[in-house]
Design brief:
200 residues, alpha/beta, 9 helices, globular, binds uracil
Length: 200
Amino acid sequence: MSYRNWKTLHEDCQACAKCDLARYRTHMVFGEGNIHADIMLIGEGPGRVEDETGRPFVGPSGQLLDELLGGIGLRRSDVFIANVVKCRPPGNRDPKPEEIEACFPYLRAQLALVKPKIIVCLGVHAARLVLRRDVRITREHGSVHHVKSFTIIPTYHPAALLHNPPNKPLAEADFQIIGQEVRRLAADEAQSGDGALLRQ
Ligand code: URA
């Protein structure tokens, strides 16, 4: 289904019971940020604090995400943040393939409405879903892919970095690559007179 506006998309997500995750949720976590952003970050799924608040990346991994964004001069208001699944998998288990597929039309609709130029996949689930193939983050983090009109960059999930802090510098280096892509696209747009990148 294609959505022409956020309101109906949000209402459908709110009422969604397409998979078992709906039974356990306190809040559906729709995603938030700048709906005109040129950068969309896609995480895995809400954790405990996100389920309680209905907002993405507000728990400990959200603090780390803010730090990584800040390292390249971006704030949350510069990006849109979404997740592979909009309801918390119980006990923070991985989302199941059928849950990911059930939720994908909503994410696809968000991509169609935001129309980001850069998609940052936070972790393996987002990377596999967006690139539609098997991905190993340890091998492909920081790589730049061009698919249709999108520039896609997989990187570590912030929660994985909290579990394994020695990988944090690798993620920081990935974000430098993301920053370079942001600047490259901004320069291209300035040259073509469009100038939309990082618009507020
Ligand atoms: N982890 C995610 O993948 N998404 C969130 O929103 C929070 C934590």
